[in-house]
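Final report, Chapter 2: Outcomes

The project's central promise was a pipeline that accepts a single protein chain and returns its three-dimensional structure in a standardized token representation, suitable for archiving and comparison. That pipeline is now operational. To close this chapter, we reproduce one record exactly as it appears in the project archive, with the input sequence first and the structure output second.
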Amino acid sequence: WGHLYWGGATFWLMAEIEIFDRTGGSRVLRDAMRAICSNDAGIARLAEPEDVMRAGDAAIGSRLLEPLYLRFAGNAPEIDLPALFAKLGVSGSGASYREDQSAPLAALRERIGKA
């Protein structure tokens, strides 16, 4: 179950980062999730995952979630989490971590923290 749980968490973190990058910060994962939840392809009824991802893609104006889902759906891709966290400006472990305000994705990290 751990692989599925952490794989899902990694998928949504990667989606957040890619949306932020691709839209220059004008859109975030929350925009896609709102559309998914208000669309027939969302949680209101059972749907194919690809349909759910397409609804999110339409909201952000970029085909991003569906290809990312397909990448994760087979074999989970290898993600260099330490490098990813460094880009977000997070280092350390447990209760002793530091935030780097000069990191490339520090603005996104701040946005996620306020959500």
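Archive annotation: The two ends are 27 Å apart (CA to CA).
This record, like all others produced under the grant, will remain available to the consortium after the project formally closes.
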